[in-house]
Amino acid sequence: MKAKHILWAFLFMLTATFQAQVKFEAKVSKKKLGINERLRVDFEMNEDGDNFAPPTFEGFRVVGGPNQAISNSWINGKRSFSKTYSFFLAPQSQGHFTIGQATVDIDGQMYKSPPVSVEITAAVEIPKDGNNADYLASENVHLVAEVSNDKPYLNEAITVVYKLYVSNEVNITSSWREIDTPKYADFWSQNIDNQGNLKVYEGKYNGEDYRYVILRTTVLYPQKTGELNIEPLTLDVPIDVRSNKRDIFGRYLMTRVNKTISAGNRTIKVKPLPQEGKPENFSGAVGSFDFKVKTNKTQLDANESLELKVSVSGDGNLKLFDLPHVTLPSSLEVYEPTREDQIKTQTSGMTGSISENYTIVPQFKGNYPIRPIAFSYFDPKTETYKTISSDELLIEVENGPLTSANHESTTNLKEAVTLDANQFKYIMLTPNLVSMNREDFFKSPLFWGLMGAPLVLIPLFILVGRKRKRRLADVAGNRLRRANQLAKKYLGEAKRNLGHQDAFYESLERALHNYLKAQLQLETSELSKDRIAQLLQERNVEAGVTAGFIQLLKSCEFARYAGASAVSMKKDYALAVQTISNIDKLM
């Protein structure tokens, strides 16, 4: 028995000794640091492990890592092994925080690192030490947001250019990571990214020579007056800084530092459009434009079709206003216009043209004048309103039936009537008439059918009449049906563009704006989100319906730089139909 106890004690000590050899611990670069400093956390193990899982790092933002390092050496026949996972963290607030436990699987057994407490204090002054890598990195890399005009008019284009300046003392050899992306509230925006073709330029920063790249160019159209804030772009950039160590050839070795740099907030003071000299037909166009109205033909016959094209071309907020409405004589049949946009967004703003094509079919012979159509816009360069009027057009319908007015004028002329030999050719002069035998008709199936038809049709008419009466009495149902028809009318173009992200969201945003303009008697320049919410609230529209409408407008804005699936577009379309129906029913 004594030998058995000794054997068990030996095995227990051997197992404990083996387990004690496995170490998995967390090490931090410092236990106390300022909120403007960075914390390095190393999870180190002395045996190779798999399935490493880091903690959540609550209270911190991961700006670098995980970086993995393995060391395996033999000294005097003794093996030394270490495997390290490193993270670089940026504190998000002051206080005491705990780095949680990481886990790793070593030889089929799960190990956990002990938690580590860290204190975050207020911002500290970084020593201006020329040998300090963090200081060198922060002093030699800068992110700048250059705004073309910080005092634009409402709906006037401005450009924000994000430049990354790098001095000759440091290098950036790895790609950076975007942490915070500006959302540009109260702006219509479109990004022009340069990630695929970055070109290095030579320039000055604070009077010193720097290299710089243009990361992104964003075109903005302010949709609200007053002071508007442009959120900062924030990047995590790996920077190679020269260290004090040299290689065997005497060259300085480089060390990598991860820095978080931001372009900073920018405030834009948006001026309202002047009221003095503002034309009545002004629809919110701001820029420099040309306006034309033309047809593909001016001479045709009745029941032939012609195309009337109304177009605006130039530079400005082409996507943010409506074309003038065309009014034509009632004897011309006019179909709903089709819209065509050919717009490019360049660094200076939108450029191109928008047009509406009307299909017109004349019904009668005669001459039909199309009166001049006026288009007004605001030119921010001259700070004045300008109006362009189209030329008067004359449509000549040469052949076709005459209107009643034309018949009267012909009668008053008292001209001799000339008869054509074939004028009454369509009348049958020798009809083949067959007499009707009354005895055959009496008691025939047709006779009984005609006799019994009223007995069947009268109850059917009564049922249809009652159903129609109930339908007319259903005020709420009729209102809902009219609201649904109105929603589908405005959203028809968006439905046709389902599956095409850009065209769909542009059509959806235009439909929402047009609906509000028709219901609330607004101009395009007044369609800011705050203004919309205020007007809907004044008309007793429920807060949930108003919030849904505003969310739709935000979805249209975000979709210009963020992807959207076909399922998302279908959901947004269904939500738009329901929201317009609800607003129309409540109003």
Number of structural units classed as domains = 4
Q: Unreliable segments (pLDDT under 50, ≥5 consecutive)?
A: 16-20, 407-415
Major sheet characteristics: 5 strands, antiparallel
Q: Helical element count?
A: 11
Structural class estimated from helices and strands: alpha+beta
Euclidean distance between termini CA atoms: 95 Å
Please give the oligomerization state of what you see. single chain
Mean pLDDT: 81
Shape: elongated
* Beta-strand content: 35-45%
User: Radius of gyration over alpha carbons?
Assistant: 39 Å
Please bin the fraction of helical residues: 25-40%
Number of strands: 31
Describe this structure in words.
- This protein is α+β, with helices and mostly antiparallel strands and 587 residues long.
- The protein has 4 domains: 20-121, Sandwich (Immunoglobulin-like); 133-270; 287-397, Immunoglobulin-like, CATH 2.60.40; 475-586, Four Helix Bundle (Hemerythrin (Met), subunit A), CATH 1.20.120.
- The protein is 27% helix and 38% strand.
- It contains 11 helices and 31 strands.
- The strands form 9 sheets. Strands 11, 12, 15, 16 and 17 form a 5-stranded antiparallel beta sheet that branches. Strands 22, 24, 25, 26 and 27 form a 5-stranded antiparallel beta sheet that branches.
- The longest helix has 29 residues, at 445-473.
- The termini are far apart.
- Mean pLDDT is 81; it is low at 16-20 and 407-415.
